[in-house]
## 1
Amino acid sequence: MAGPRPVVMSGPSGAGKSTLLKKLLKEFEGVFGFSVSHTTRSPRPGEENGKDYHYVTREVMKAAIANGEFIENAEFSGNMYGTSKAAVQAVQAKNMICILDIDMQGVKNIKRTDLNPIYVSIQPPSMEILEKRLRDRKTESEESLQKRLHAAKVDMEISKEPGLFDVVIINDDLDVAYGKLKDAVLEVIFFQKIRNVIATFYLTIASLYLAFLTLYARL
Ligand SMILES: Nc1nc2c(ncn2[C@@H]2O[C@H](COP(=O)(O)OP(=O)(O)O)[C@@H](O)[C@H]2O)c(=O)[nH]1
Ligand SMILES: Nc1ncnc2c1ncn2[C@@H]1O[C@H](COP(=O)(O)OP(=O)(O)O)[C@@H](O)[C@H]1O
């Protein structure tokens, strides 16, 4: 796929993916753009339709998947989640680096596409800390929390698979983890800046050439 390499962030629910990627989107406004997924789960207080997720019914999501509108989709903790082609294209059309926040099934499915992202795994320091963070976040019912903890155990095991992720970050101290995330995506930022400089250079040359032609035609 053309354009800068996207960044895939994955890891157990509660590991800190949203917290870290929001920091990145804020510090590098205009450089990174978030791929807004579709989900059948209900919005949490403070979440916005079209910004955090596109909140849809199972019927709508299934129809869109059948229509070939999704790059990948998965069932997580009793809900459907998926990345639409339009979500990624919307970011890439703005010449921004696309960031995807997806689960392990999503990672495995994206690996079968031509998206070619950098794969970053965000992991909690321990299951105990993960559980505490999820409880303190106060977004889950006991049932949903248990499902997430179960999925987390599986995720933490699979993440050890060599070569699955380019970088694995243990999110213990937030600032340290954020520093590591920035290091991981630095290469993409660097090439994005070079691309922009080249694009500006060619645009300037083209404008000068047009101006010259207009002037020449008048003489
Ligand atoms: N495969 C896939 N997973 C997604 C997508 N969007 C979100 N997820 C994952 O779904 C899981 C649950 O997300 P969410 O309900 O927002 O809970 P949270 O991660 O605990 O904040 C997380 O692991 C997300 O990374 C998507 O488009 N595709
Ligand atoms: N390094 C950290 N130390 C302490 N709390 C954290 C840290 N990173 C994230 N949190 C908190 O843990 C909870 C889960 O983080 P969140 O970003 O929602 O995880 P995810 O998006 O992976 O589900 C949130 O309440 C967040 O404020």
## 2
Amino acid sequence: MASSRRMTIRGVHYRIEQQIGHGLHSLVYGGRDLRNGRPVAIKIINFLHGSYSVKADTESRRQSYWKELQMLLYLQPLNPYIIRVLNHDHNERHGIIVMERGETLRDTLMDHVLSGKPLPPSQAHRFWSQMVESIYYMHSIGIVHGDVKPENFIQLGADGSVLRLIDMGISFHLPPNVTSRLKTAAGTPDYVSPEMVNSRIGMSSRSKTGYKADIWALGVILFEMAFGYRPLQSLRSNEAKLNFLGKLRRDITIPSHPDKQLRDVLKRCLRANPRRRPNAEEVFNHPYVSGKRK
Ligand SMILES: Nc1ncnc2c1ncn2[C@@H]1O[C@H](COP(=O)(O)OP(=O)(O)OP(=O)(O)O)[C@@H](O)[C@H]1O
């Protein structure tokens, strides 16, 4: 299937440029479609060996590849915010998904978070409205994303203002509680909701609570864009953050902000009690999102 720096997938030739990311069980390369020079991301899931710390057997890696691919293909016509799948293939050793390539929103936010600078309000609004709509689409067909964070949004378009979701939150079979997953994964608990920390069912749960956990994560992202830091950023270790979230009974304080609608939607999304948080439709129809749509 592959020769050095070139790869042919179902008859289409690609040039491989560099590794642009990795997941717990995958490597992602930046490449070009040699027919038209179009930039692509090529995600390769190794069925035989895990490159990273979490152990999963070959069968569960293979199943996860199929689940992810099927979910992506299923969502293509239903949700315009899902990353477009351009090609895919598999053999005994690997599963491959070729997608549109962009920059992760994390890279853009990083500059701001490092210097404690908020994103320009119009940019924050443009990004967040798309995120809300993408999650609204998912929830309205009964799917919880389960891992909403800036790393999972890719910026496309000439000015990077168009967002796509890349990771459907479909994970390998991991230990069944969130704390163990967070200890094994390289991730941060900054976007994890209080109820997920207390839950025995884990972050990939499709249970009712999962919907409101997606809303909490959207709230954390808006907070980060609006203030230039994350709500739990001052707590240094993952353990401290999990501890704080696990004991959270009162709503966290939202700093003052000149945009009243933004502060209001933030307060609602970051309510400690998931039952008091709005659902995706209510967030989509909140004046902060819908007002600027009219
Ligand atoms: N379409 C894309 N364009 C640009 N970068 C991408 C793209 N898809 C993935 N990446 C990069 O590769 C990384 C890993 O991709 P992805 O999250 O899909 O892998 P994963 O194996 O599902 O991860 P996890 O172990 O968190 O479930 C992303 O965080 C991102 O940096």
